[in-house]
Write a structure and sequence with these properties.
Blueprint (H helix, E strand, L loop, with lengths): L1 E4 L2 E4 L7 E6 L2 E5 L5 H11 L7 E5 L5 H4 L8 E5 H9 L3 E3 L17 E3 L5 E3 L2 E4 L6 E5 L8 E5 L4 E5 L15 H11 L8 E4 L3 E2 L2 H23 L10 H6 L9 H20 L11
Parallel strand pairs: 4-5, 5-6, 6-9, 13-14
Antiparallel strand pairs: 1-2, 2-3, 3-4, 7-8, 10-11, 11-12, 12-13, 14-15
């Protein structure tokens, strides 16, 4: 666990997600949860060493299964955007691990079994402020990577948790994305107001400024390729030849190549189907 600002911690040791903890006099505000139940319990035990107030509040930065599977094991109140809450309502009561091909991290894990969801008890539409000490914690709606994506911002400490907005050296999750909005949100992050911020990505820890620009380039390239297909009314299956070219500029470890290839294949297909063929997609189930 790394302290990046006064009372603000991140943890990158668990698979699939970067976790956060904000230690305030009233209690802990937690950012996401490990997908495995055992890891969630270990993380919960680790947090006991931080002390602070007795209350616990967990923030889900979006609906992705990698960051929502382990929420119940954290045993605390959950807050999320209202669109994330809607997704929970559409899910069955229990998640049952089965073969999937979205390229997500949870698919690489064994022993998940059946998981009961922990839907958010608190939701908001645009912005929510929490005052548990002498500094405000702001939750803001910033869609693009996911319809329910939010940031957690501590303006006094110059820290922002930005979820899957930037995912260095791996393909982004596209199935539920909105590429034009995503690119606009990244451009917003390049505003001088964020220049001195510690930016915490949802999968890779601290994000340097050059990775934001790199993410914009990747998304623009994806959008351009898909629009070329749409211009000639190509079938969704024709996204397949795009995969290798889009992956080539990314520094992907050999042991991740098959997984990330499948992630991009899946995301391109479903994004194209939804965006250019007007076929509604069951949000969240294709992450």
């Amino acid at each position: 666990m790394q302290e990046i600002a006064r009372g603000v911690y991140i943890e990158t040791a668990y698979p699939g997600v970067t976790l956060g903890a904000i230690n305030l006099p009233h209690g802990l505000i937690l950012i996401d949860a490990p997908p495995r139940m055992d890891d969630a319990r270990i993380w919960r035990s680790t947090l006991l060493n931080l002390g602070g107030g007795v209350e616990r509040l967990l923030v889900n930065l979006d609906t992705h299964l990698d960051r929502t599977l382990g929420v119940r094991a954290m045993e605390c109140t959950v807050v999320a955007h209202e669109k994330t809450a809607l997704v929970y309502r559409s899910r069955s009561t229990t998640f049952k691990a089965q073969t999937a091909e979205t390229g997500a991290e949870w698919e690489q894990m064994g022993g998940l079994g059946s998981v009961r969801w922990a839907p958010p008890e608190i939701s908001f539409s645009h912005c929510m402020n929490v005052h548990w000490g002498d500094i405000p914690v702001i939750m803001e709606y910033h869609p693009g990577p996911n319809p329910g994506a939010i940031w957690v911002i501590l303006p006094d400490l110059k820290v922002a948790f930005i979820g899957d907005l930037v995912v260095p050296n791996q393909p982004p999750f596209l199935a539920n994305a909105d590429l034009p909005v995503w690119i606009d949100t990244l451009q917003h992050l390049l505003n001088p107001a964020y220049r001195e911020y510690f930016l915490v990505g949802g999968r890779s820890g601290l994000i340097p400024i050059e990775q934001i620009r790199r993410q914009i380039e990747i998304l623009r390239r994806v959008q351009e390729r898909l629009e070329q297909l749409a211009a000639r009314n190509a079938a969704p299956e024709e996204v397949e030849p795009l995969v290798s070219g889009l992956l080539k500029p990314m520094a992907i470890p050999e042991h991740r190549l098959e997984q990330y290839t499948q992630r991009l294949r899946w995301g391109l297909y479903h994004y194209y189907l939804r965006r250019y063929r007007s076929v509604p997609l069951e949000e969240d189930e294709t992450d």
